[in-house]
TrEMBL record:
Predominant location category: membrane
Organism: Longispora fulva
Short name of one Pfam family: BPD_transp_1
Cellular component GO terms held in the UniProt record: plasma membrane
Topological type in the membrane: Multi-pass membrane protein
InterPro entries tied to this protein: MetI-like (IPR000515), MetI-like_sf (IPR035906)
GO biological process: one example: transmembrane transport
Domain ABC transmembrane type-1: 99-282
Similarity section: Belongs to the binding-protein-dependent transport system permease family.
Keywords (A to Z) from UniProt: Cell membrane, Membrane, Transmembrane, Transmembrane helix, Transport
Protein name: NitT/TauT family transport system permease protein
């Protein structure tokens, strides 16, 4: 009886379908991947853990340097003392007034630099005579240290906020202009011909074809321009202190004069965090543009 059952089961078993393997492969291949939220979490963690590791290593090296006592405590504060001072400063109006003053100057200087850089960049990119006259000078200005402009800025504007703005703009605008020039130069000629064929001329050609195609290089130029403007601003605030307008650069200078190592390092941490935050914003913008243009599939 049992043998019959076995024979019946074996005989009536469905014949293997030649296409079942392919279907199984297709099913596995076409199976939905990880959910978007899980992918975003993994992507966020993949970008975050190397930074946390680097931060941990920096703190470790810093603490080891403090333990070796190769410098007195008034010159090199420990991480614990520095972060404690930062926490204490964050509860004061003077700290936030300083941050607001510095950020106001940074944003105003950067916006002015963007305006100057865009006008100069597009003009040099499209006018051959202008490119021959000042094209190489823009790169020369970009390589000039911002601190070298301050004596002239102080002569022109005295110890005022205008002197800081002058150096910020002249330090950042050449980088932005170079980004615009590079972006316009590398627009594919075929794309320009296609734009003209559909009737784009003059401003329409810039707005519809050249500007979108130049965006990756322009964003790279903006990112570099921000870095130059931020450095120029810090140098300016170290040299130019205006009464009634506390700033991060002025706080650095005061902390050095009073041998306040925890306060000095706490201010440096704030400057670093702001720089990293702005760099992250530019990173998001750069990735969004690359995805839109199909340069990356991330």
């Amino acid at each position: 009886m049992s043998g019959d059952t076995v024979t019946h089961t074996t005989t009536d078993a469905p014949a293997p379908d030649p296409g079942s393997g392919i279907m199984a492969f297709d099913a596995g291949f076409l199976a939905p991947g990880p959910r978007p939220r899980r992918r975003r979490t993994r992507s966020l963690w993949a970008g975050l853990w190397p930074k946390l590791l680097a931060l941990g290593l920096v703190l470790l090296v810093w603490q080891i340097a403090v333990w070796t006592e190769f410098r007195p405590s008034y010159a090199l504060a420990s991480p614990a003392d520095s972060f404690a001072q930062l926490w204490k400063d964050a509860g004061t109006w003077h700290f936030w007034h300083s941050v607001l003053t510095t950020m106001r100057r940074a944003l105003l200087g950067f916006l002015l630099s963007v305006g100057v850089g865009f006008v100069v960049g597009f003009a040099v990119a499209r006018v051959k005579l202008l490119r021959a006259a000042v094209g190489s000078m823009i790169t020369a200005l970009q390589t000039m240290p911002s601190i070298a402009w301050f004596p002239l800025a102080i002569l022109l504007y005295k110890l005022t906020e205008s002197a800081i703005m002058f150096v910020v703009v002249i330090g950042a605008a050449p980088s932005i202009a170079n980004g615009v020039i590079a972006g316009v130069d590398y627009v594919p000629p075929l794309l320009l011909k296609a734009g003209r064929n559909i009737g784009a001329r003059g401003f329409q050609l810039y707005y519809r074809v050249i500007a979108p195609a130049s965006l990756p290089s322009i964003v790279a130029g903006l990112k570099q321009g921000w870095a130059f403007s931020w450095r120029s601003l810090m140098a300016g605030e170290l040299l130019v202190s205006i009464a009634g307008q506390p700033s991060l650069g002025a706080n650095l200078n005061f902390a050095r004069e009073f041998n306040d190592a925890p306060g000095l390092i706490a201010t440096m941490i704030v400057i670093l965090v702001i720089g990293l935050g702005v760099d992250t914003v530019f990173g998001f913008a750069d990735r969004a543009i690359r995805r839109r243009w199909g340069i990356t599939d991330a």
